[in-house]
Amino acid sequence: MIDFARVRRMMVDNQLRTYDITDLDVLSAMNEVPRERFVPAEMGMLAYSDQPLPVARASDGEARCMLAPMVFGRILQNLQIKEGERVLVVSSALGYEAAVIARLGARVVVAEPDAGLAVEARDILGALGVEGVDVVEVGFEEGCPDRAPFDAILVNAAVEQRPETLIGQLADHGRLAAIVGDGGRTSRASLFVRNGDVTGSRNMFDAVAPVLSVFRKEPGFVF
Questions:
Q1: For the whole prediction, is pTM greater than 0.90?
Q2: CB count, 10 Å around CB of 73?
């Protein structure tokens, strides 16, 4: 039988700490949440691989993915989520990202348009006793305006265009993290910070992840 607690410890020591992740709260949360419970049983060991992992598929055929542990951990470190903050997670696959963020003491809303995946995420989170997470069946691009403003938003995938609607749901000084680009090697994990009516952004590091279809750029007209 696989000792997943030991595998998690190895993930923290060999992937996260060696990738400049030093925030003790982030390291502790990722060491405590059983990542293997948020993937199909036959994929348990793959949950700790250092690559994006498709773990579920919506009724429209689009995959839901977990980010590579070191990418997710470094994004969390830059988001600087504090206890009591309100956080929106866009596309949390089967709920892993939401569970880790809840472990940091935040109140989490998950946007998931697929009813079947929303139910599955609720079941897993409930079975693990995770509190403070609400999975809402809304479109990724819509966010949850009735729950806004949010102190932080995580888009758990790549986007080809700036998610303006989601940025508009940030509180003042709120932060949004997403992987910006086509999802390939030229993509960057980026942080957007809202200050009043102005939102600045900066690239954090290179990152690879699938692009959510609703955030793809419209094809331009070619002469």
A1: yes
A2: 25
The residues that bridge with 179 in the sheet, in sequence order, are: 158, 189
Q: What is the pLDDT of residues 50-59, one digit of tens each?
A: 999 999 999 9
d(CA 125, CA 120): 9
**What token pair was written down for 182?**
């086509």
pLDDT surpasses 90 at 87 = yes
Return the half-sphere exposure (C-beta side, CA atoms, 13 A cut-off) of residue 181: 15
Q: Give the angle subtended at the CA of 150 by the CAs of 101 and 36, to the nearest 5°.
A: 20
Phi, psi of 209 (to 5 degrees): -165, 155
